[in-house]
């Protein structure tokens, strides 16, 4: 099997991020959690906490991560962590952060405690959007991490507003009445967050971990609300093998389905530009949720997916001041 | 397992990282095998492992923590190996 990446380049990332040094740090998210084998979300959490050099407090919206990382008496977290309902991870953390600021003023708390919220796409794009929007608008000093697996995986793969165009889910099934799967394109949440005028919004991927770690470190140095959206492959919902979450993340970046960029005080920068932009079908082909699109009758839908990806990518390049391709 | 009236009020878990007591190794149907002579110590397997089931000591990769490894196989896919020879191979469990 081909590796799909350049070993030399990754070894360069390793030196940049001081990976060996990071391996000496205590892991703040432990083994023994009950996420499915091959899930992307624990890797997202692990990388975020690895890149956090400060004491941290986390809140977690209901979702796969929440229900399987803390099952009565067994918690995988080694930092103070609170389970919130589906809709209020950002609101709960806003409260904790406000309390912290009040206690800090009285000298009852150490400085530089970081507040991190975790939510899946259901808890972030849909159900938790209003509380997240409120927290961003009130300018709480917190980092919100969305692990986006593109559906309500925890409850059995129902469509969310993050589900990509054409995907088959249990509530957007591809069948005789609707052969194309989900007929609406996904919501561009990273831009919606950036539109709040927050100091930092970014998109990241576990496959490009040097970029991801750099973004988390950068976010922690900025005061105010920050948002990072991370692609998190789900082999159950995407209908793939358990061993390819990193490969699929890499393909998502290389096909520009999941472009890596950051918006800092309104300025957009594309942080990873693939050497060669690959057709989005390469990302979709290994996934059973797109299987129905690879028949002649659905060629139009496949073309529409590619069009959406291209349009978004050209817009990103334009806004980052780079010449469109 | 504690009874309901023995639990801490508010369902608070006071022991950080107590999930370590819950072994997930039995979920595995494929078992990764580490071949040390092909290992370049890049630590990518450790970095990508969703189950924190690869022990790293003093910056060096050590043996698997089979009590926790769920056998997803990501480490074997991502392992660059040495001269085209993988340092991690997946084998059916129980063989």
What's the helix and strand layout?
The complex is a heterodimer of chains A (325) and B (95).
Chain A: H1 7-17, H2 19-22, H3 41-50, E1 56-60, H4 64-69, E2 70-71, E3 74-75, E4 81-83, H5 89-105, E5 114-120, H6 121-126, H7 129-137, E6 143-148, H8 189-194, E7 200-205, H9 209-221, E8 226-231, H10 235-238, H11 245-254, E9 260-264, E10 267-272, H12 281-284, H13 299-319
Parallel strand pairs in A: 1-4, 1-5, 5-6, 6-8, 7-8
Antiparallel strand pairs in A: 2-3, 7-9, 9-10
Helix pairs in contact in A: 1-9, 5-7
Chain B: E1 30-34, H1 44-48, E2 54-57, E3 60-64, H2 74-78, E4 88-92
Antiparallel strand pairs in B: 1-4, 2-3
How would you sum up this structure, described in words?
The complex is a heterodimer of chains A (about 325) and B (about 100). Chain A has about 325 residues and is an alpha/beta fold. Chain A has one domain (about 5-320): Thiamin diphosphate (ThDP)-binding fold, Pyr/PP domains (Rossmann fold), CATH 3.40.50.970. Chain A is about 35% helix and about 15% strand. Chain A has an eight-stranded mixed β-sheet, with helices on both faces. A two-stranded antiparallel ribbon of chain A has the order 2-3. In chain A, strand 7, helix 9 (about 210-220) and strand 8 form a beta-alpha-beta unit. In chain A, helix 1 (about 5-15) runs parallel beside helix 9 (about 210-220). Chain A is globular, with a radius of gyration of 19 Å. The model of chain A has no long low-confidence stretch (mean pLDDT about 95). Chain B is of the alpha+beta class. Chain B has one domain (about 25-90): Alpha-Beta Plaits. Chain B has helices at about 45-50, 75-80; strands at about 30-35, 55, 60-65, 90. In chain B, the strands form two sheets. Chain B has a two-stranded antiparallel sheet with strand order 1-4. In chain B, strands 2-3 form a two-stranded antiparallel sheet. In chain B, strand 2 and strand 3 form a beta hairpin. The longest helix of chain B is centred in the middle third of the chain and has 5 residues, at about 45-50. Chain B starts with about 30 loop residues before the first strand and ends with a strand. Chains A and B meet through helix 1, helix 2, helix 3, strand 2 and strand 3 of A and helix 1 and helix 2 of B.
């Amino acid at each position: 099997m081909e590796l799909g990446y350049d070993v030399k380049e990754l070894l360069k990332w390793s030196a940049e991020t001081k990976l060996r040094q990071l391996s000496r740090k205590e892991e703040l998210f432990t083994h023994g959690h009950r996420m499915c084998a091959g899930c992307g979300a624990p890797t997202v959490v692990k990388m975020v906490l690895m890149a956090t050099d400060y004491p941290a407090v986390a809140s977690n919206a209901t979702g796969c991560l929440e229900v399987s990382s803390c099952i009565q008496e067994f918690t995988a977290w080694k930092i103070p962590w609170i389970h919130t309902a589906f809709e209020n991870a950002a609101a709960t953390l806003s409260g904790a952060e406000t309390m912290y600021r009040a206690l800090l003023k009285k000298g009852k708390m150490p400085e530089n405690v970081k507040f991190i919220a975790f939510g899946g796409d259901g808890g972030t794009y849909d159900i938790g959007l209003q509380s997240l929007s409120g927290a961003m608008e009130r300018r709480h000093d917190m980092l919100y991490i969305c692990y986006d697996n593109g559906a309500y995986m925890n409850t059995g793969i129902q469509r969310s507003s993050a589900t990509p165009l054409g995907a088959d889910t249990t509530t957007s099934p591809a069948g005789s009445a609707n052969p194309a799967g989900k007929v609406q394109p996904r919501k561009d949440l990273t831009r919606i967050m950036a539109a709040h005028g927050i100091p930092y919004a970014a998109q990241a991927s576990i496959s490009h971990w040097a970029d991801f770690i750099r973004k988390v470190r950068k976010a922690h140095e900025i005061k105010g609300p920050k948002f990072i959206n991370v692609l998190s492959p789900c082999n159950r919902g995407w209908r793939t093998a358990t061993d390819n979450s990193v490969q699929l993340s890499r393909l998502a970046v290389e096909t520009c389905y999941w472009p890596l960029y950051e918006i800092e005080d309104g300025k957009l920068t594309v942080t990873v530009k693939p050497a060669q932009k690959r057709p989005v079908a390469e990302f979709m082909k290994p996934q059973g949720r797109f299987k129905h699109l690879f028949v002649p009758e659905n060629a139009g839908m496949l073309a529409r997916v590619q069009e959406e990806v291209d349009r978004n990518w050209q817009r990103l390049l334009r806004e980052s001041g780079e010449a469109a391709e | 397992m504690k009874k309901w009236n023995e639990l801490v009020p508010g369902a608070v878990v006071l022991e950080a990282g107590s999930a370590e007591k819950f072994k997930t190794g039995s979920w595995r149907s494929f078992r990764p095998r580490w071949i040390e002579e092909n290992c370049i110590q890049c630590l990518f397997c450790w970095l990508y492992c969703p189950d924190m089931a690869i022990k790293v000591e003093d910056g060096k990769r050590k043996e698997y923590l089979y009590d926790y490894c769920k056998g997803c196989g990501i480490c074997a896919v991502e392992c660059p190996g040495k001269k085209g020879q993988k340092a991690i191979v997946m084998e059916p469990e129980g063989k």
